[in-house]
């Protein structure tokens, strides 16, 4: 991962939370902002692990700190997970994401959310999420499920099948109730006007 990509990902996450990309906002949120601390160190581990020298010097320290935050905040998201820009962790606690999941840009994830593996059946595998998605508290997405763009998934919803673009999904099992999408839930997505973005191919974490 290039440093420009790392910087873009960190600042896009920051902007989604604070509406600012200034250094003081970054420092203040690192000190006081629990969920952003996790995403910052997750992105940092990913960057450090991608460089041979940094991997054997600073990466072990960053990894240990991220491991500490796993338990402190109740968030289990591997730094190896492919996550696009503007990742927003609304509240910490009970968040579990399988490391092979794919998450697009501008995704809001709430407390109690699980993106899990199905070990057998027609949907064996892990979820793939598009862009501009809101995941409500307690939402569960299990198996090789594809979630389209601009989707809102309600609280405690259990999704085990593909969801089209612009859907609003509720219930157990999840069912589409409207095509109103995630409008109003996904805000502060204009960070590409504030931050110099890397090439489109480099914006997603590898």
Unreliable stretches = none
The end-to-end distance, rounded to whole angstroms, is: 8 Å
Global morphology: globular
Write out the CATH superfamily name: Hexapeptide repeat proteins
Domain unit count: 1
Mean pLDDT: 94
Q: Main sheet?
A: 6 strands, mixed
* Beta-strand content bin: 15-25%
Report the helical percentage. Answer: 25-40%
Going by CATH, the architecture would be 3 Solenoid
Would you give the CATH topology? UDP N-Acetylglucosamine Acyltransferase, domain 1
Q: How are helices and strands ordered from N to C?
A: HHHHHEEEEEEEEEEEEEEE
Report the top-level CATH class.
Mainly Beta
Structural class: alpha/beta
Radius of gyration: 16 Å
Count helical runs.
5
| Annotation, overall tally of beta strands | 15
Spatially, the strands of the biggest sheet line up as: 3-6-9-12-14-15
